[in-house]
Design brief:
Blueprint lengths: L6 E6 L2 E6 L10 H15 L6 E6 L10 H6 L3 H15 L5 E5 L2 E3 L1 H7 L3 E5 L4 E3 L13 H8 L2 H8 L5 E2 H7 L4 E3 L4 H13 L3 H12 L7 H16 L2 H17 L1
Parallel strand pairs: 2-3, 3-4, 4-6, 5-7, 6-9
Antiparallel strand pairs: 1-2, 7-8
């Protein structure tokens, strides 16, 4: 028998679910797991039948961080970048992504959460723990930038420097989490959310996601108009927009 996959995948209509699958190690990130994450996303991004991705972990954890053996083995810049590859592959995915946080997300596991577009947390079991400093390690992989961008300077300081571990309700208040779901309904809630994004044209969601992710480059109103102008003009020439407008016009005409 071959080794068990470190990532399992399912398709629910147009939503792909990627489950980190090394429960005995609490789904710690390894180089082999990163290879499987990359392979899954490479496949889905070229599949017109996939419109969104949900990332979760095999119980009892979401992801306990980077595998310590890999951390100790790969101490140069290139080695560290290989450790980052899995969550960065998710961060740079053009498809809409949701983190379904079903347990502890620690260190690089928190990076996996921060890489997703929105986060849904299990009410009882979700936990968010930076923990880099607590093991004598400087944060890496864009950890502080993403945490600061998504929450606030004070939240980043509290979690990273002061070791504050955040539970679901507080994470919601801090903006780290979009919504909370009962543990037993977590995946169902995420699939419902993901289906809304997956129902839209893939090119449109990809371009809109890219627009949102580059908003930090905008500092005033005129720039914001330019930032959206050409993508909006492109969308107006696409079949989806024209079809919806024509149907709306027909409905209006039928009421006259």
């Amino acid at each position: 028998m071959g080794a068990m996959p470190l990532v399992t995948t399912e398709i629910h209509d147009r939503v792909a679910v990627l489950t980190l699958n090394d429960p005995q190690k609490r789904n710690a990130v390894t180089l082999a797991m990163n290879d499987e994450i990359t392979a899954a996303l490479d496949e889905w991004e070229t599949d017109d039948g996939i419109g969104a991705v949900v990332v979760t972990g095999a119980p009892p954890a979401f992801c306990a961080g980077a595998d310590l053996d890999d951390l100790l083995a790969d101490q140069g810049p290139d080695g560290m970048r290989r450790i980052y590859e899995g969550f960065l592959r998710i961060a740079h995915c053009p498809l809409p992504t949701i983190a379904a946080v079903n347990g502890a997300a620690v260190g690089a596991g928190l990076n996996m959460v921060l890489a997703c577009d929105i986060v849904v947390a299990a009410r009882q079991k979700a936990r968010f723990d930076s923990r880099f400093l607590q093991i004598g390690l400087h944060p890496g992989g864009g950890h502080t930038w993403r945490l600061r961008s998504i929450t606030s300077r004070q939240t980043a300081m509290a979690m990273v420097l002061f070791g504050e571990v955040i539970r679901s309700e507080q994470a919601l208040d801090l903006g780290l989490v979009w919504k909370i779901a009962d543990d037993e309904n977590l995946l169902e809630e995420c699939l419902t959310l993901a289906a809304r994004a997956a129902a839209q044209p893939r090119d449109l969601t990809a371009r809109t996601k890219a627009t949102i992710l580059t908003l930090d480059t905008i500092s005033e109103s005129a720039q914001s108009v330019e930032h959206e102008l050409h993508p909006q003009l492109w969308s107006m020439g696409e079949p989806a927009f024209r079809s919806l407008v024509e149907n709306l016009q027909k409905k209006i005409s039928s009421k006259d």
